[in-house]
Amino acid sequence: MMHPLEPRALSLLRIVAGFTFSLHGFQKLFGCFGGMGGSGATAAFGTLPWVAGVLETFGGILLLAGLFTRPVAFVLCGEMAVAYFRAHAPRGFWPIANGGELAVLYCFIFLYLAAAGGGPVSLDRIIWKKSK
User: Fold this and answer.
1) What is the 3-state secondary structure (H, E, C) of the chain?
2) For the chain, which residues make up each domain, given as ranges?
3) pLDDT digits (tens, 9 = 90+) for 31-73
4) CA distance 79 to 129
5) Which of 25, 90, 124, 130 has its CA 20 to 30 A from that of 81?
């Protein structure tokens, strides 16, 4: 039996994950919060970190708003899987030792959101309810 707060908890998970994920993009694209590596640096246009920054910034904002939640979460899940296997896995097997635990968590949170949707507090819910 579903607990009455479960749908709202799903929306809260999406909002928090989208917000915190977008901050990683702001670091890469705009040098906010210390920038890349804490030096205030930004990713060079067209590079892989720049592409990641675009996905993280705008994907995170879309998730925060709950707009196009399922496809955006699916794309971001893939981004985090690629990030893990390119940047972290070569440094060792265990995510806690190779620094990849955050990438793994985001990957599986986004996989869950791709399957579950954005929850009741989302633009998706508002838009698709009106169109029915």
Assistant:
1) CCCCCHHHHHHHHHHHHHHHHHHHHHHHHHCHHHCECCCCECCCCCCHHHHHHHHHHHHHHHHHHCCCHHHHHHHHHHHHHHHHHHHHHHHCCCHHHHCCHHHHHHHHHHHHHHHHCCCCCCHHHHHHHHCC
2) 15-130
3) 998 888 778 889 999 999 999 999 999 999 999 999 999 999 9
4) 30
5) 124
